[in-house]
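Request: Could I get any protein with tokenized structure?
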Amino acid sequence: MTILDRFGPLDAVDVAVLAALLYQGYLLLLGSRAWNVLRGLAALAVLWVVASAIGLRGTKWVFESLAPVGILALVVVFQPELRAALERVGRGRTQRAVAGDPVKEIMSAVRELAARRVGALIAIERGTPLGDFGQQGTLLETPVRSELLETLFDSRGPLHDGGVIVRGDQITWAGAIFPLSEQQEGWASELGTRHRAALGLAETSDALVVVVSEERGTVSLAREGHLSTDVAPSDLVKALREAYVEPVA
């Protein structure tokens, strides 16, 4: 009896599940810092196999001795990606009920702040709760208004350096502290801490993060682990509309 003769419907489902998991893992790691680490680990694995095949006992012993420690190291190295994957599974698909037009209010504030070159950092919460990042800031829970956003960032009070978290049609937190991205490749010198914080939040959540540059008066957008600079107003409106209209994946 061949392998194909023993291959049944359950085996097909098993293969499909494994293929889906591997593909999602590939999409999750592709383009991230962990992708280069994974490629390095693959090269070491090939070296291990070759050493075992041709009888390099010393090299084989080193690899076998370090393998248990390497498993723990993988968990540490891929911790952000593993957390993002688990959050993606746990989000489900939900539709946010929104009153009024927060997109219009956010756009009005961004245009005014950019024109006056006032730095701003605004995160629109989607599936991943962002309350943990707002704990060091101030809880507001007020309707989204362009005047309030402008006041928060234009003042020299304790809240203007942090980020604002918008949940639906409410400004929930101001002065929030976002994690800084450690990305180095392709990082422009004119991009400062706000941009790094926006990208850091986009790497650890599904939030849509808008940045206004204090130095250049330009607008950037961070989402899905990527940062787009010099974003046109029409593209920003489209991204905001999608964040509010589309179901959270």
Summary: The mean pLDDT is 80. Residues 33-54 form the longest helix (22 residues). Strands lie at 120-124, 138-143, 163-167, 170-176, 208-212, 219-223, 226-228. The chain has two domains: 3-91, 102-245.
